[in-house]
Amino acid sequence: MEHGVTEVTIHHEPSSSTKRIWKVFWILLIITMVELGLGLSLYALDLPEGLRMHLIKGTIIILSLAKAYYIVSVFMHLGDEIRNMIMTIVVPLMLFIWFILAFLGDGSSYRNLRNKYDPYYKERTTTGGGAKPDSIATKPGGKD
Amino acid sequence: MMWYFLMSDSFTFGAFLISYGTIRFSQNYWPAPSFVFNTFPGAGETNLPLAFVSLMTFILIMSSVTMVLAVHEGHHGNRKGVVKWMAWTILGGLCFLGCQAWEWNHLITGEHATLIDGKIELIGQSMRHNPWGMEVADHAAVLDALRNSSHETLVKLVHEHNHSAAEGQLNALSNDRLIGMLNSENLRVHLPGPVAFGGYFFGITGFHGFHVFSGVIINVIMLIMAQTGVFERRGHYLMIEKAGLYWHFVDLVWVFVFLCFYLV
Question: What is the pTM of this model?
Fold first, then answer.
């Protein structure tokens, strides 16, 4: 990692106090508590799949991204680096936007296709309780 | 260079998590995390959804803070401060690994009543089995399955329901007597869940745990180097800063592992 050559990009002004660190710690802690509260509310309310559930999950995801931002910019001091350095890190990460959209879309299209062309599979995996044990026994669980 | 390594590592983790997401999106049913992760060491069968993993998250965030404080002391060339905060960081890392070991052990050795091949089996979460499918609502089916189940399984089920009965005593009873002692209305039996859950869970949390482990090793080396005055002679604590970057990255990955496996 380090062979006596100092990397210019890593130099920055040492912050004068630890106040900022503790402030970010409290922010992270509070965000985590809110996330947990939302996660538990999903459990407590036992919501059906629908708009409200997606809203809660979306909020949790946005809060996690906020946490990631605080960790990277304050704890890892990326916010203090020079702009071009930040860009060489952040721009390639943009690939994730496509990555996530494409692959999650792929997954759900696979589900839709399977449900459409294999009604037996759909019945077996959505109506759980009603299924007869014999019918489950004859066909081993979904291959994933 | 550390930043570019971390960027490539984030693609590795990202690819893992996205492939998990793809499989999850392709399934009609996926076990709810607050149902799977609801135990706490020493709390027995009490239902405490997400409590233990919150503790793990807190430990990791806390150790990230002590790491920043170590880096901060390094800026001021304060050897004692660096050593102190590095020691706390290492302790936090070890606590996290201990928690994860307990959680894995609990998942693997757990015994959950699952309806497999028309009989009830007690299984834990492994790479091949997932005991958290949909609940079987049909009591007649449960009763049928009980009749096909092994003697050993029935003894365990009765013992779980009624702790006053000694297993030795129950062993002597016939299967029919044992089934009579069970109330099939109260018995919660699940179908096997998606097999991929185990592979992804153990694979990704294991890969993250391995990062924590190597982070702890790196931190121990940094602690020794700081203690023996290597950095003091060198005139700067940049190495601490780089170890810190790695450690924060581990924390950062946990934010997303926590999100994908435990929250949503």
Answer: 0.84
